[in-house]
Write a structure and sequence with these properties.
47% helix, 8 strands, 11 helices, alpha/beta
């Protein structure tokens, strides 16, 4: 089980400093969507250079232009790129082609997918090997949590690795660990914590 640190809102220099501080606990460093928008592939390249021993995920949430946009991330040094599960299957296949050529990985973010069982079957049939259960920030604000979607994903995914994100912290981590996802994604619970190092330590210890 890996811990993925989602970096979304910090400026590049602050994000680098925080990731360095948390280095011992983090397995995957995520260049979150706001970060990608603000800094582009420069952030991916910079983290790749500064953290050669870590896996890097570029959270592009690709909806179109699958091959080209995936290749941007892989060429910059990302191990993973994300595309949206609600996109056309042709876009997914284009992302898969880029990932296979690069020897890297595509993660399908299942945010806003209404029929998870059906879409999981379709995507696995297309060759998808990584899913992310994701309850977005706006959904979290309305009180939704990813735990139920994770249960559905674990029940229906036959082969794919599963990540989970959405407001997870040291107080809720145990219920997610019990379902045995492959990756647990934590963002603001660590980045906005009074003591980010202690929060990361508690989460990693629970894992």
């Amino acid at each position: 089980m890996k811990l993925q640190l989602a970096l979304d809102e910090l400026p590049l220099d602050e994000a680098l400093a925080l990731a360095d501080k948390l280095r011992q606990y983090v397995d995957i460093i995520e260049i979150g969507t706001p970060f990608v928008i603000a800094e582009g592939m420069n952030a991916v390249r910079t983290f790749r250079q500064r953290f050669p021993e870590k896996e890097i995920l570029s959270d592009e949430k690709i909806m179109d232009g699958g091959y080209f946009e995936s290749k941007l991330a892989f060429d910059a040094g990302a191990n993973y790129v994300t595309a949206l599960g609600v996109t056309d299957i042709l876009t997914v296949k284009a992302c898969l082609r880029a990932s296979e050529e690069a020897g890297r990985h595509l993660v399908i973010d299942m945010i806003c997918v209404d029929d998870l069982p059906t879409r999981i079957r379709e995507l696995e049939a297309a060759g998808v090997k990584h899913f992310a259960v994701h309850t977005g920030a706006d959904q979290q604000a309305a009180g939704r949590q990813p735990i139920e979607d994770l249960k559905v994903m674990k029940q229906h995914a036959q082969h794919a690795h599963i990540s989970v994100a959405g407001g997870i912290n040291s107080k809720t981590i145990d219920q997610y660990v019990a379902l045995k996802p492959d990756v647990i994604i934590v963002g603001s619970a660590i980045t906005r914590a009074q003591d980010p190092l202690e929060e990361a330590r508690l989460i990693k210890a629970a894992m």
